[in-house]
Amino acid sequence: MSGAPYAGPVVDAHHHFWDPRVNHHPWLTEAGVIPFRYGDYRAIRRPYLPDEYRADAAGHNLAGSVYVETEWDPQDPLGEVRYAALLRERHGLPDAVVGQAWLDRGDVAEVLAGHAASVLVRSVRHKPGRPKAPGEPGQTLMSDPDWRRGYALLARHGLHFDLQTPWWTLDEAVRLAEDFPETLIILNHTGLPADRSAEGLAGWREAMARLAECANVVVKVSGLGVRGQSWAAGWTGWIIREAVALFGTARVMFASNFPVDSLCASFDEIYSGFKSAVADRPEPEQRAMFCDNARRVYRIG
Questions:
Q1: pLDDT tens digits for range 4-34
Q2: What are the C-alpha distances in Å from 71 to residues 66, 150, 287?
Q3: What is the sign of the dihedral through the CA atoms of 262, 121, 105 and 135?
Q4: Per the database record, which ranges form the Amidohydrolase-related domain (predicted)?
Q5: Distance between CA atoms of 30 and 181, rounded to whole angstroms?
Q6: Is the pLDDT assigned to residue 234 strictly greater than 90?
Q7: Is domain 10-297 in CATH 3.40.50.300, yes or no?
């Protein structure tokens, strides 16, 4: 067993760059402020670019990164990919991109073909929405026939799907994984276990256990901040270890979700927390979760 915090290379499997001064992000404008799970997010309604990101990540042997779509202008999803490619050319980051795609829109085939033609895009994301709380009636877009027709096109283009949805909708994700076994689902932000009550954590674990039975699902351990708490409080270490136990070290990737999670903690606090939580794992397993799995999943050189 290792017993020591990981010191090897890190590929951050989920982060964002943006510059609202030059590119339109509706939610980063004064007029477009939205209800947000971390509360007041004015601190991140400003440019966040590779130089600042590298400074935030200093001390953690950053060896690569995955840019995830930023709710850029929904009328121009391919423009975001061109922007990410320009950042790559100028700054050497990112190494891979998760593009924006509205799977229930009429132009989905054209957008996915455009993503597939990019040298950076490996996956797409479309948040499926409601229900907003456990037990709330209704279904998400994962059960919508039009959305699923768009989803069915992913395999044709060799694209993965980054799924951001809370744990109480994961039964729909299980059906999606079973119905489209050729498409890899990458669950974002650990299934969003924001409710740290005993009941909430039990519900999260049960839902995650069902999803983990699907061989075509991997998980990003990220997005673990809770409004009004320090990052390490409220069972965070337990959640990390349970996610690893459920999915196995070959299906876990660690990620910063920066700059969004800078509202909760520094990059160092987050990554040091990850490292502490899995320090008892053998070094090759740690390296898999911090680096090698992201390189494999996102096909990074």
A1: 789 999 999 999 999 999 999 999 999 889 9
A2: 15, 19, 31
A3: negative
A4: 11-300
A5: 42
A6: no
A7: no
Place of tokens 């039975």: 213
87 and 50 Cβ atoms separated by less than 8 Å: yes
The answer to whether the beta carbons of residues 225 and 38 sit under 8 Å apart is yes
Residue tagged 């283009």 (tokens): 157
Q: For residue 288, give the DSSP letter.
A: I
Tokens of 213: 């039975």
Cross-strand pairs, 254? 221
Q: What is the CA radius of gyration of the chain?
A: 18
Structure tokens that stand for 72 in this block: 């850029």
Tokens, residue 301: 């050189």
Q: Contact, 213 vs 247, CB < 8 A?
A: no
Q: Give the other-Cβ count within 10 Å of 284's Cβ.
A: 11
**Residue 137: CA count within 13 A, CB half-sphere:** 0
Q: Can you tell me the distance from the alpha carbon of 95 to that of 300, in angstroms, rounded to the nearest whole number?
A: 6
- Statement: the pTM of the whole predicted model exceeds 0.85: yes
Residue of 168, 5, 164 lying closest to 70 (CA atoms)? 164
Burial class (CB in 10 A: 0-12, 13-18, 19+), 301: exposed
